[in-house]
Amino acid sequence: MKYLPLAVGLGLSAAAVLVVPGSGATASMDQVTAVDRPHRVANRYLEQKPVWKPCGDQEFRTYCARITAPRDWANQYSGHDIQLAVSKVAPAKGKPSRVVFGNPGGPGGAGLGMAPYLASQAPLAKDHLAVGFDPRGTGDSTNVTCQGAPGYTMDARDRDPRNLELIAEASRLSQPYCDGQSRGLLPYITTAQTVQDMDLIRRLLGYDTIDFVGYSGGTWMGAYYQTYFPQHVGRFVLDSNTDFTRPWIDTFTAQPHGFERRFREDFAPWAAKYDDRLKLGSSPRTVIRTYEKLRAALKKQPAIEEYFEGSIKIGYDQNTLDEIVSGDMYTKVDFPSLAADLAFLRDLSAAQSKGGPRAAQRKVDALSPERQRELVRRAARDTVGLRPLGRIVGDDAEGATFTAVTCNDTPWPQGREYGDQLAARLGPKYPLIGWGMNENPCFYWDRPNLTMPQPTGQGLPTTLMVQSAHDPATPYELAASAHSRYAGSRLVTVSREGDHGVYGGVNKCADAIVNKFLTTGKAPAKDVTCAGEGIPAPSAPQPELEYGEGARQEARTPLRRIAGFTKAVSGYLH
After folding, report:
1. Looking at the DSSP assignment, which residues form a beta bridge with residue 491?
2. pTM beyond cutoff 0.85
C-alpha cells in the first residue's frame, strides 16, 4: 500500500536580535573559505563549451546544458567541481540583443522553467534571450539532501516542556542529517556562491549585462547579484520581496503576521460573503471559529483515510489542517479549494466522532473519482513560494537547499530559549503559524565562515520592486523596509491583492509597468499603486493543470506556471 502523508509541522524563523553562533562548528563548516567578494574565474571554467540539447516538447523551443563550476569559488583549484543545469530560449526570429535571467525563489526552487516562462511573455520574447537555471543544490544541478531528517510532527501549540524538547531535538538533528548525506557540498550552498554561478553563466553566454526577474526568495538572489556584480546589472525586477537589506531572520519573523492577515482579512470575509454556497460561517469570526473547532477535533481524533480502494492513504490531523490552510494563502485561486476542503474535513471529522473510522471512510468512498483525485493532488503538492522555516527540513533537494541557504547565509540566534520565547510571543497573536517559530533548524546551525556585503542599491541602475498588499509569505512590510534602504528603487504596490508572485497574469497594470521597464528601461518616476481586482466569487474547484507531454502552456498563477514549465523541461540532461 502506498502511503502519502501530508507535510506536517510549521516552522518559522526568529526575530531581529542576533546572537553570534557558538564555536562548535563541524569540520566541513570550519574549512569553508569566506566568499565575501567576487573571485577571479579560473580559465578552465571560462573555456568550457556547453553542449545545448533540446529539453521538453518542441513547442517550448527550450535548450538545456550543464556547465561546470567550482564547489567553492574562493578555492577553485581544490579539484571539487559541481554541475549546473541551465536553460535558454531564443526569440523565434532574429538574434537577441539582451538576456534576461529568472529565478522562481524558494530559495532552492528549481529554475529551468524560467526560460520558457519568460519567453512566453510576448513583450520579452521579441528581443531577449530568456535564461533559467537550477541553483546549486537543487533540480538537475548537483544536489544536496537531508533525506530522513526528523520532521515536526508535534503540535506547535503544545507548550508542554516535553513537547518543546522534542521540537528542539528535531531541530538539532537537521544539520547532521543534511551534512552527512550531501557529500561535503552543504556549506557551499549559499547565495554568495550562487550569484557567482550566475555570473559564470552570463560570461559563457557572452553578455556584458543581464536583466533579471526574481520572485520571492529570488529577490534575495537578485539583490545580492547586484551587490556582487554591479557592473553587469541591467534591468532588475524583484517581485514579492524578502527584506534583502537585512538578515534572513527578519523576513521569516514577518511571516506569522502576513499569513494571519491573509487568512483573517481576505479568506474569512470572502468565505463569509458566500456562506450560502460555502457553508463555513456567515461572518469572518464564524469562519475562523470553524477552523479552530475543526483543528481541535482533528487533534483529539485524527482521521486516516484510504483513497482509490486503499492504494493511497492520507492522514489528517491538526498539523495537516494548518498546512492546508497556510498553503492556500499564497493565491486567491486556491480559496475555493480551501473552502471545499474545510467543509469536507468538518463533515469527515463529525462522521468519525459519531460513527468511528468506518463512518469516516464511507464519506471518502462516496466521493466521485474526480474529487478523490483532487484531494490526493492537494495532499501531495509542494509549496510554491517562500515557505515558513521548518515546514519541510529537506526530504528532497529543494527542501534541503532551502534549509542550507537560509541557515548558511546570515546569522541566527543559537539555542532553544530564544525560539521558544518567540513562539510564545507570536503564537497567541498569529496562531496559524506563529506557534511554530521554534521549529527552526537554523537555531542550532553551525554556519560557514561567511560574511556577505549588505545590499544597499548604491551606484546601481533603477531596481523595480513589485508587491501585493496582503502577500502572506513575503509581507508588504518587508518590501517597504527594503525599498526604504535600497537606493534608486521604485515600488509598485498592488492594492486589494494578496497573491505571492505578481508579474505574469495577476494584475494588468503591474504587468504593463514591468514589461515597459524590461523592454525599454523606463521605470516609473516615483512609486506607483495599481488597483487589484479583488477576489472573485467561488466556482467549482478545478484540478491544477499539469504540463506533461504536449501540454499547452496554461496556468493560473505565475509561480505555478513556472513550476509547470520546470517539470516539463527537467530531466533531459540525465
Report:
1. 465
2. yes
